[in-house]
Amino acid sequence: MNQLKASIRIANHYIDSLLISGGYRFASKEISDVLYMAGQPDGIRLYTQYDINILDVIPRNHKSYPPSFESGHLSTKLAKIERKRQARLK
């Protein structure tokens, strides 16, 4: 599990570097992929059974995000994933 947690930190730095070098356009596919994986059964299981949050790959409050990305698109996706996680915990 330590390797997976280290991989999450490395991936976070990778996406951060994409955001810094090319803006959101350069990192949007990777961010979408992470959101997709986090909402899948294996992503939910990682969180609920092992306390590993792959959403930590996505940098928060990044200056390269378009206006309202975090309060709009990202917030909506995170809420949906959280509902799935809570349903799994019941």
Q: Which structural traits does this protein have?
A:
single chain; 90 residues; mainly alpha
Walk me through the structure.
With 90 residues, this protein is mostly helical. The protein has one domain (2-89). It is 74% helix and 0% strand. It is built from four helices and no strands. It has helices spanning 2-22, 24-39, 41-50, 70-89. α1 packs antiparallel against α2 (24-39) and α3 (41-50) crosses α4. It is globular, with a radius of gyration of 13 Å. The protein starts with a helix and ends with a helix. The model has no long low-confidence stretch (mean pLDDT 95).
Q: Short description, anyone?
A:
The chain is an all-alpha fold and 90 residues long.
Topology:
Blueprint lengths: L1 H21 L1 H16 L1 H10 L19 H20 L1
Helix pairs in contact: 1-2, 3-4
